[in-house]
Amino acid sequence: MKKESFIKTLCLFISFLITQATLAQEEKEEAEEGKTSVELSQEVMNPTTLAWQLQLEEFTIFDTEGQEGFAQNFRFRGIIPLEKGLLLPFPQLIRVIAFVNTAPGGPTGLGDVTLNQFFILSKKQWGQFGAGWNATIPTRTSPELGSPQLQLGPAATVTFTDLGNWQMYWILENFFSVTGNDKYGSNAFAILQPNIFYTWSNGVYAGIEPEWQIDYRTGKVAIPMNLRLGYIWSGKLKYNAYIEPEFMMYRSEGYTRNLNNFGIRFGYRWYIPM
Fold it and tell me: Which residues 6+ apart lie within 8 Å of 178 measured at CB?
């Protein structure tokens, strides 16, 4: 994808969001009675909410450390809710995540597939706690587009929803390579994702959702920062549209797992309550 085509795509995306916002005004009469925009925002953005979801996100990367050329990651994420699992009697969410990536100035193809399962272990007035596991499957179609190793690890999430217009969620994921260690070396790292948002009464929200990484073996880190501006509304379904610039705030010298210096995400999500 060239920069010119990206600009055209971005213009079409913005036009699409404007159209959706206009349609949302017409659909508000069908929204759930008595539910405020803040409550709707808490339900939609809470990673432990049991709802069918389809999430599309494009991350356009303009500056990659030590490399030249346009890069991008297009993410498709489907979320399957279960009120009660077959083996463990807890509510749970199964996430299936796939990527179509473009390396800086290089090929475009499939990235790795990630599977994630969260069990909702506790619900309190202040929020929820969940734990589970994740796996990264090496499905890349080119060496530049993903990892050659199968990776597994535990995950956990804590959500705080009793904060008025504020919402705060923390997600911790761990990844340990279980194949190819003799050939590629062993990998052990974690991703900590703080999610902090403020929602206004009209459904507009702003906040951060960066993914901070730490390598357990070397202690090196990558700490990006972003700012998301989005809009959540409800009609026949629930919707979430957003745009999110991101820059690398700090990266340890020699850390190569995240070389993105600056990019912009824009996404669109559908939610179907159980």
Answer: 149, 150, 151, 152
